[in-house]
Design brief:
Length: 467
């Protein structure tokens, strides 16, 4: 859990430091934004590759090597080097985002049955709330010590994570193999890069529509080619046939749509809080104080992560997913109807955190129900790729909606535009709720997979464990 928390917090370091980076390195805000975007890109690309490596006999070596790359990248962000080297360091830090699914594999393989399920749920939660943990602290360090001091925190905690992994992470069980599908890895990495690039560079659609359209077609073709290669490969990077299982496919759709909605609300609240009152709304919070708005998100997200495994003993995971989506939708409703004072933003952020925490804790139970134990890392890696794409699109949708409500020459959108964006989020969470409820009917008689021994599903009875 510590490793998952560290890589999530370090991966999100770019968010509160964008303005400081632009000032320190004398670059534009758009260029400084890449300190966040490049980490998310490298994380999304590395996740399925690490998931496949983690499914084989060299999982411990993969974890240690990846953390070593993250530590080296953290050192580059601290050293007095040009801006290009900072981007290289941030890309290396982003590779660590792919370790979360490997931590789940370690928990499922080595913890007692009664502890593996709750631990996997908490690993999923801390990978979300890590941003809320690191945001205010790094913003405070940036205010008083500069951007190098803030990145120095990343170097310190990643070095501690590497030491922790070296001392405590065991070897994977024997009898496994994990040949790397190089062609599949290249096609997936290229397709994901284009998808996330297009989601992050929203201005490309307004300034160069033809180029954006060509890149979109290229991304679709690359992902289609990747699917064909995976279906024909004897050692696929991601078992696409397993992904087609109704429970896994439905869970990934719920993660994709729900992820868009969750990140959309996170974007709306933080942006609204930092808007100066001269715009007619907003609170003009500093970076550090705006980071404190994320504290309720992290605290209630962790509380939800602790409660959800207990509820899982009485309520099926798809129902928990649906209930969590309803909670996030409630956060949108609160934000849409009550944002006149800062306390209301804190409440909306807390509701969002509780919904995201319970959603993240319930998700592994749906996927791992039909996933062999040896494929835990690979299956959850694909889910995290879906989550990354959903988050990126959620952020892009928020930016597009707010840009559409901004008059020419005016730096800030109209207040009502935030309500419009909230309505978009409510629709996304309603769709997520319906998708989760659709999963409940065929799974109502299944047991909790994260605490029971995992076996491959029987070919003749989809969704049921084989014997």
């Amino acid at each position: 859990m510590f490793i998952a928390l560290v890589v999530a917090a370090v991966g999100s370091l770019g968010t509160p430091l964008i303005t400081s980076v632009a000032t320190t390195f004398h670059v534009s805000l758009d260029s400084a934004q890449w300190t966040l975007t490049i980490a998310l890109l490298s994380g999304a690309v590395a996740t399925p590759v690490l998931g496949r490596l983690g499914a084989g006999p060299h999982r411990r070596a993969t974890i240690l090597a990846t953390l070593a790359v993250v530590v080296a990248g953290s050192a580059l962000t601290v050293l007095p080097l040009p801006f290009a080297w900072l981007l290289v360091g941030r890309a290396a830090q982003g590779v660590g985002l792919g370790l979360t699914a490997l931590m789940m594999g370690v928990a499922r393989d080595h913890l007692p049955e009664g502890r593996s399920g709750p631990t996997i749920a908490l690993i999923s939660v801390v990978s979300i709330i890590g941003a809320g943990v690191g945001y205010p602290l790094t913003a405070l360090l940036a205010e008083f010590g500069g951007v190098r001091a803030a990145y120095g925190l990343g170097l310190l905690v990643t070095a501690a994570a590497l030491l922790t992994a070296w001392r405590s992470v065991p070897e994977a069980p024997g009898g496994r193999s994990a040949r790397m599908d190089v062609t599949g890895a290249f096609l997936l990495a290229s397709g994901l890069f284009l998808v996330l690039f297009l989601a992050g560079e929203t201005g490309l659609w307004s300034r160069h529509l033809a180029l954006a359209s060509v890149l979109t077609v290229a991304a679709v073709l690359l992902l289609c080619a990747w699917t064909v290669v995976e279906l024909r490969s004897a050692t696929p990077l991601v078992d696409v046939r397993a992904v087609r299982h109704p429970a896994v496919a439905g869970a990934n759709i719920a993660m994709f749509v729900g992820g868009m909605g969750m990140y959309l609300l996170l974007t709306l609240i933080t942006r609204y809080a930092q808007t100066p009152p001269s715009a007619g709304y907003g609170f003009g919070l500093s970076t550090f104080v705006a980071g404190l708005v994320l504290v309720p998100f992290s605290v209630l997200g962790f509380v939800a992560g602790k409660l959800t495994p207990r509820l899982r003993e009485r309520i099926d995971a798809p129902f928990l997913l649906a209930g969590s989506a309803v909670v996030v939708g409630g956060g949108f409703v609160l934000f849409a109807g009550a944002r006149s004072n800062l306390a209301e933003l804190f409440v909306a952020m807390g509701v969002l955190g509780f919904g995201v925490g319970s959603f993240s804790a319930a998700m592994p139970g749906v996927i791992l129900a039909v996933t062999p134990r040896s494929e835990t890392s690979s299956a959850m890696s694909f889910n995290y790729v879906v989550r990354s794409v959903g988050y990126s699109l959620g952020s892009a949708i928020g930016g597009l909606v707010l840009a559409g409500g901004t008059d020419p020459g005016r730096p800030f959108p109209h207040d009502g535009t935030y309500t419009t964006a909230a309505l978009v989020g409510i629709a996304a969470m309603a769709l997520t709720t319906l998708t989760a409820l659709a999963l409940a009917r065929p799974r109502s008689a299944e047991t909790d997979p994260t605490s029971a021994p995992a076996v491959a599903p029987s070919p003749g009875r989809p969704g049921r464990p084989g014997r």
